[in-house]
Automatic annotation (TrEMBL):
Residue numbers binding Zn(2+): 57, 90, 93
GO MF term (any one): identical protein binding
Lineage: Bacteria, Pseudomonadati, Pseudomonadota, Gammaproteobacteria, Oceanospirillales
E.C. designation(s): 3.5.4.5
UniProt catalytic activity: 2'-deoxycytidine + H2O + H(+) = 2'-deoxyuridine + NH4(+); cytidine + H2O + H(+) = uridine + NH4(+)
Protein name as annotated: Cytidine deaminase
A GO CC term attached to the entry: cytosol
Amino acid sequence: MSHDALGQALMIRALAAREKAYAPYSKFHVGAALQTTTGEVFDGCNIENCSYGLTNCAERTAIFKAVSEGHAKISALAVAGDTDGPIAPCGACRQVIAEFAEKDTPVWLTNLKGDVQQTTVGVLLPGAFDASDL
Ligand SMILES: O=c1ccn([C@H]2C[C@H](O)[C@@H](CO)O2)c(=O)[nH]1
Ligand SMILES: [Zn+2]
């Protein structure tokens, strides 16, 4: 599959996962989809809680699903939300993404209008704290 086709497939999967969002408080629905280095695809949605700080973002839901199934290496990621421009992952998710991806791992950020920003994990979190700093 070409790079562009992979991005398209993951964005479609992220948009589908977004439909499952549990977001009764913010009403802001987000979906994410990733491919692992072993070729599997995992997706996730945001899951809120009445104790707001316990919310899990879509990106981390997808990553935790993959890691808990034994796939701890991400080779590509897409995120979709109903934003004006392409969605911007929060800082917490950028750090968690960095844990399981390489700096040059491609990331597609999109919205419901079809705006797309193709970036990389290293651009999303320059100067990341990582395991080599420990
Ligand atoms: O990239 C993002 C940005 C926000 N959210 C969620 C968290 C919360 O449930 C809602 C509003 O911030 O959107 C995500 O899941 N991913
Ligand atoms: Zn987040």
